[in-house]
Amino acid sequence: MKKVLLAIIILAAVAALLAGAFGPSGAKPLRVATTTGPHAELLYAASEMALKDGLEIKILEYDDNLKPNDLLLSGDVAVNSFQTLPYFESLVADRRLPLVAVAKTVVFPVALYSHKISRLDDLPRGAMVAIPNDPVGGGRALLLLAKTGLISLRDGAGLQAALTDIVANPRRINLVEVDAADIARRLDEFDLAALGSIYAVAGGLIPDRDAIAGEGVDAPYPHIIAVHAKDKDNPSVKTLIAAYHSDHVKDYIRRRFHGAVVATW
Prior knowledge:
CATH class of the largest domain: Alpha Beta
Structural class: alpha/beta
CATH architecture of the largest domain: 3-Layer(aba) Sandwich
CATH topology of the largest domain: D-Maltodextrin-Binding Protein, domain 2
Strand content: 15-25%
Number of helices: 10
Shape: elongated
């Protein structure tokens, strides 16, 4: 009996030591939902830094954009990281969800590409310029063209900017709406094209090398870290954010994605 009791005590001591390796108080791992791909990769990079501060992160990857928010609402995860801020804000407002964004992470930037010019000053009058034909991609393209001075948009056009919002076009450029998935393949047909980084890379373009101009860290569609409102001040969440916003993760982004993903910090 004494031997059994001693064994139980030893096992309990070992378990306590192992638990303590994951945090000063033996806290459970922080469960984070994300989508497979760059968002998951960046969380794994951040988890390396978080572990140095005593926080273990359990990353759950999914192939759809619905599951991470469902898990956050049900309490099965404490955090998710995958969605853009405008999408999140619209979802929360429409469904009155008790979720909050606690940090920005990265941008998948829209940029301008060309096989005919290497700088915008060389864009000819009356140039043919391709932009995505979907509302989000097209709106971002118009905002970028306005930022570079090629066009001007009416006040308040915002993220929903459309061709009808153009109020000045000094170079008389011709804007052509094209399916985003086809723009890179058809780049030779245009003098200039606006394209999101996912489609650019799929079409053989490298943003760091090929983009003439692009969105910066202040891009209108940053991705975010989201939590349930009750967890916004959770110390583990703050540790995750600090780990994500580290030089280690920023260097990983730069080396791994070559401008297709840009850190927001």
